[in-house]
Amino acid sequence: MASPTEGRVAVYIDFDNIVISRFEQENGRTRGPSLKLNDITAETVAADTKLAEQLDKAQVDLGAVLDFASSFGALAVSRAYADWSLYVNSAYREQLMKRAVDLVQLFPAVRPAKNGADIRLAVDVVEDLYRLPDLTHVVIVAGDSDYIPVAQLCKRLGRYVVGIGVAGATSRFLASACDAFADYDTLPGVDDADANTEAAPATKALGGEDPSASPSGVKRPGKRVSDQPVANDGNKSPVKPAAQRAATDLLRRALRLGESKDDVDWMSSSAVKNQMLRMDPSFQESALGYKTFTEFVKSRHNLVELKEEGQLRLIRLRVAPE
Fold first, then answer.
1. 308 Cβ partners below 8 Å, 6+ apart?
2. Is this structure's pTM higher than 0.85?
3. What is the pLDDT of residues 192-206, one digit of tens each?
């Protein structure tokens, strides 16, 4: 349960904007002036292996986006705007639904409605700000300058505005209108192959090989030691290894968020557990066979270091010896 003193966050994702921007960032504008999502179908991807590879290369890890947003407080509102009947978008539906994101359907008109998502998103933001006066943070995931008035309104109403966009496809004026702005590529977890297990590659829907099952070629930070789960000493609970690995990954992501966002090495164990619960409310160390959170942390001693100062317990990601 969220603490009554922590922030309450609303997240709004212009999904088409992020997917298209990410595709063009990774592949360039090689397929015309702009990627047209409604031209991509299962048939065209099956017939064009290059396109399938480009889509896989440019897949978006929305888990990393939501994890970063949750570092500001509990997610009270999370919405993604798109035409979810399109093939490329539909590949992400399960990933978003697992994180309880509200999928807002934008029905296509006879002519493409360029500002369809912009207008609907802006209307929802204004409505939510007045309907939910306890919202403290607004996170806008987009790069379009059309969102500048929305960001400015949120600030006038006393909300802290965070923007997230793709480098090279984000208006610098939108970034200036926010209290804080982060490039998608710099979010903790985006460059981590193990953290990207929730991503939904386009070829997966076609029965192709899931890249998350094998090395993706993404380089890991060389500074850290192995983050594989360790044996649970003394724990005889018949917990599946997959659940243990997922809990280890959750711990690592929470620590990386704190390290990146707050620029600190050591974090209190209570702050780390709160962040883990914001990212995954189903986390329970008891379900993994541990009596306390401290026991859970100690069992991951190859990933984290634990320092006890009286009643205060501090943890950080383990650093490999130089």
1. 314
2. no
3. 633 344 444 444 433
